[in-house]
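Order emerges. As here.
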Amino acid sequence: MASVFKVSKLSRIEGRNLKDSARRMLNRVLINSLMSIFNMKGGGPLQKEAFEKTALFSVIRDAVMTNFPAATELDLRNAEMVLSVY
């Protein structure tokens, strides 16, 4: 379960829309060298770690939902696709 404190801190990072907000949060908390060892699902030709299984993913997801409470599951999956680009 994501920490309420961490979620409230990250939810202060806003964006123009759900995807932009998720991207900004991710850029704020991760450096490039750390981003390079993850992809959304894990595995692949470079055998990366699964970001969706991390506690940070849950915190970012909850923070985005705090900023966009009317977001649907489809909206969240589209935002996850943005995050998977990293």
